[in-house]
From TrEMBL:
ATP binds at G37, R38, N39, A40, A41, G42, K43, T44. The RecF protein is involved in DNA metabolism; it is required for DNA replication and normal SOS inducibility. RecF binds preferentially to single-stranded, linear DNA. It also seems to bind ATP. The lineage of its organism: Bacteria, Pseudomonadati, Pseudomonadota, Gammaproteobacteria, Chromatiales. Keywords: ATP-binding, Cytoplasm, DNA damage, DNA repair, DNA replication, DNA-binding, Nucleotide-binding, SOS response. Pfam families: SMC_N. It is found in: Cytoplasm. This is DNA replication and repair protein RecF. Residues 13-347 form the RecF/RecN/SMC N-terminal domain. Gene3D superfamilies: P-loop containing nucleotide triphosphate hydrolases, RecF/RecN/SMC, N-terminal domain. It comes from Spiribacter onubensis. InterPro entries: DNA-binding_RecF (IPR001238), DNA-binding_RecF_CS (IPR018078), P-loop_NTPase (IPR027417), RecF/RecN/SMC_N (IPR003395), RecF_2 (IPR042174). HAMAP family: RecF. Belongs to the RecF family.
Amino acid sequence: MNESAETSGLLQLGWQSFRHLETASIEPRAGINVIHGRNAAGKTSLLEAIHFLARSKSFLTHRVSRVIQTGASEATVWGKVDADRSVHRLGVRHGNGETRVRLNGRDVTVLSEAAWLIPLQVINTEAQRLLTDGPAVRRAFLNWGVFHVEHHYRDDWRRYQRALRQRNAALRHGDRRLAAAWEPEMAAAGEAVDRRRRRFLDELVPRALAMAAAWLPGIDLDWQFRAGWRGGYAFADVLAGARERELAQGFGLYGPHRADIRFTADGIDASGHLSRGQQKLLVAALKMALIEYWGKASTQCPILLIDDLPAELDAPHRQDLTQRLEQSMAQIFLTAIDADQLPSFHEAAWFHVEHGQVSQGPRGV
Ligand SMILES: Nc1ncnc2c1ncn2[C@@H]1O[C@H](COP(=O)(O)OP(=O)(O)OP(=O)(O)O)[C@@H](O)[C@H]1O
């Protein structure tokens, strides 16, 4: 249980016209919350509602409008969040192609202000895509990871992206003087982003790989970070050196926006070498290590959403993960079709979902 966490995460969660969930609110506990019910009952929708509150997005679809209940014009999720030693009221609404976020009674225009409150990760059937998809997925994981522990990361990243956009526009127009003029800013912000990313990864990845090694015995796991430009060179020199080629291409080829993390198993790319189940375990280890790191390094309570835990792991791995979840400082929401498929938790809140109706009760009810 979550004794060492200073904050307990979501104290209350409510929704209206969200997927096929009936309008209601629940009071989750710190620690473990189990959501169980039959196929299509609404379990994943409830996890999605938490994700929507934290990030104003779905983890299932790019088309946010799909969260709006059929026949309704807008979907709303609201919550009370214990973070930074106080309780915050957060609300997110989507309708008419627009997402509006309110925090403590005022509109929030910079999304990251609200996203800051809830460090959140998801483990679901798509989890292995962190390894098998393109670098953008790993960069997003990296950006969220650093964002919650390095307070100035957001500003460095924004500065970098602005300089990148301006320099790219100059490259597109063939304006070499303007492109060069943006390089000192792009290099300074890019180097700062890179330093913070490396510091974060050096903390996180060894812990994650140690956890994964226990689940994948006999496999030699390793990783490499690719900054987005050639190792051992100052970014400013790389930009200056690449300028003529980039003018011909019409856009920049190097920088933290091209970064990637490569994971290997026995020296081969993990996405090609590990089974799907093994990939999921590696990703689960990365995400578990991340929420544990967040729990120690940030003043917010991390939240972990796990969709259909029994389907994802065999019994010994499930048991082991369960123990880790119980020791974790995070608030955890996990779904299962049958509560009996889950290992016993010492303390957990149980929510039953049936035809979109959510009710709290003892285990298995
Ligand atoms: N926008 C919407 N409006 C109304 N109903 C919806 C909407 N989106 C999805 N649904 C319905 O919600 C149900 C799916 O809910 P959900 O995915 O949360 O179920 P689940 O309990 O996680 O199921 P499973 O265990 O099968 O994964 C489906 O019946 C689907 O038709």
